[in-house]
């Protein structure tokens, strides 16, 4: 068993997540695909206070990322939309591992959040067969209580999507365009349903590749009825030397055998990264608290009076640590980027090195959000506000 310091564990995690990676392939589009394939999924989210989470997460790993990349990769049939622990873009090469969930939903073994209306689903499917790709709004009707009212047909579309009859062939203004699965899948994709053991091994290897170290509960995060099987297969893989155990602060984690090699690879921690709340790196809040001592909760789902940091606070990474959170709003019509609340951790000391890196990253993030002017409204603790006043991007607060 390898004993790792907390700092060593953090380096392995950050290296595995490729947040600070400077590796470049032949083109920005290839970099984007490589990141999706390495991470295993990119969560999709609709909140648009700043650039949506799927774009934000990829931009943080590819400075030349363009929002058109995802559309292009979907069009090229290299990625597709389905469910990970949440709605996500997934690598097309991993398609077959979605079949277990799809079959379970189709056979009624796993409950979907909508009731099954087989008559309406059949009608919806027939229309798409005959007319080609359609959006939910294509089924709208002006008739009251019509079977084609948008809400029931949207549910039917989603049910057909979740059980695998339909796929998302593209999006138009962020609206899903549904088509028959056989018209979307590349002809060379493996569609053989994996065994349950193959599926669990896939979950384990995918998670550890992207996250460096992990426990059964983390690997099975929001995947119902999998933790027991994950625990069993983890022990078998460890016994067969496919995995190794590392210990951090007295707690055992699993890792791939080559994870320790990441400690010998250099990477620059001296860059600020402004992260999405739905970034793969920090989506598991308990893990962030235990391994990075960062107690993070997204507050957009709370009443305003109960928010401590703001509606959509973005964690700030610096020197391998999570040191602050920024509640941001990109006002695109006026090109003004609002930092409504910039809150630093209580033990953080502002250095000149941080200020230079922070200014650079904020400027890049503003450009990414199509903004030219910055307004900073509140800083916590207030003493740090004075230390920021000599920064060119904060001329008049």
What does this structure look like?
The model is unreliable at 142-149 (pLDDT under 50). The chain has 14 helices and 14 strands. Among the domains are: 28-184, no CATH class; 273-387. 36% of the residues lie in helices and 18% in strands. The radius of gyration is 23 Å and the shape is globular. Strands 9, 10, 11, 12, 13 and 14 form a six-stranded mixed beta sheet that branches. A three-stranded mixed beta sheet has the order 1-7-8. It is an alpha+beta fold. Helix 1 crosses helix 9 (196-211) and helix 9 crosses helix 11. Helix 13 (352-368) links the parallel strand 12 and strand 13 (373-376). The chain has helices at 6-17, 28-39, 53-59, 68-75, 99-106, 118-131, 150-162, 181-184, 196-211, 216-219, 227-239, 285-292, 352-368, 382-387, and strands at 2-4, 42-43, 79-83, 87-91, 166-172, 175-180, 244-248, 251-255, 273-274, 313-318, 321-331, 336-344, 373-376, 379-380. It comes from Sediminitomix flava. It holds the Pfam family AlkZ-like. This is Winged helix DNA-binding protein. InterPro entries: AlkZ-like.
């Amino acid at each position: 068993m390898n004993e790792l310091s907390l700092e060593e564990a953090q380096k392995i995690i950050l290296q595995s997540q490729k947040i600070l990676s400077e590796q470049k392939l032949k083109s920005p589009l290839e970099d984007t695909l490589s990141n999706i394939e390495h991470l295993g999924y990119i969560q999709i989210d609709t909140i648009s206070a700043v650039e949506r989470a799927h774009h934000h997460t990829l931009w943080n790993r590819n400075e030349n990322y363009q929002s058109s990349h995802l559309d292009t990769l979907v069009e090229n049939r290299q990625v597709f939309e389905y469910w990970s622990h949440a709605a996500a873009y997934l690598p097309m090469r991993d398609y077959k591992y979605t079949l277990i969930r799809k079959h379970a939903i189709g056979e009624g073994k796993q409950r979907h959040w909508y009731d099954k209306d087989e008559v309406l689903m059949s009608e919806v499917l027939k229309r798409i067969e005959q007319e080609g790709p359609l959006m939910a709004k294509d089924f709208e009707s002006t008739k009251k209580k019509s079977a084609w009212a948008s809400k029931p047909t949207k549910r039917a579309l989603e049910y057909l999507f979740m059980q695998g009859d339909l796929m998302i062939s593209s999006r138009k203004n962020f609206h899903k365009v549904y088509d028959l699965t056989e018209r979307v899948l590349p002809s060379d994709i493996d569609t053989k349903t994996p065994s349950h053991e193959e599926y669990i091994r896939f979950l384990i290897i995918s998670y550890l590749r992207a996250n460096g170290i992990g426990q059964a509960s983390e690997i099975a995060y929001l995947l119902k009825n999998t933790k027991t099987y994950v625990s069993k297969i983890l022990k078998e893989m460890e016994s067969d030397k496919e995995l190794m155990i590392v210990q951090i602060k007295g707690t055992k984690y699993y890792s791939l055998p080559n994870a320790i090699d990441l400690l010998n690879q250099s990477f620059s921690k001296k860059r600020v990264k402004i992260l999405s709340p739905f970034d793969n790196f920090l989506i598991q809040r308990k893990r962030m608290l235990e391994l990075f001592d960062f107690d993070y909760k997204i507050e957009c789902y709370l009443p305003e009076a109960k928010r401590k940091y703001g509606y959509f606070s973005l964690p700030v990474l610096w020197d391998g640590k999570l040191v602050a959170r920024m509640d941001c709003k990109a006002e695109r019509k006026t090109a003004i980027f609002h930092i409504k609340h910039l809150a630093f951790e209580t033990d953080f000391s502002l250095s000149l090195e941080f200020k230079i890196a922070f200014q650079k990253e904020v400027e890049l993030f503003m450009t990414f959000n199509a903004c030219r002017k910055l307004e900073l409204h509140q800083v916590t603790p207030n003493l740090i506000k004075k230390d920021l006043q000599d920064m060119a991007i904060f001329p008049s607060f």
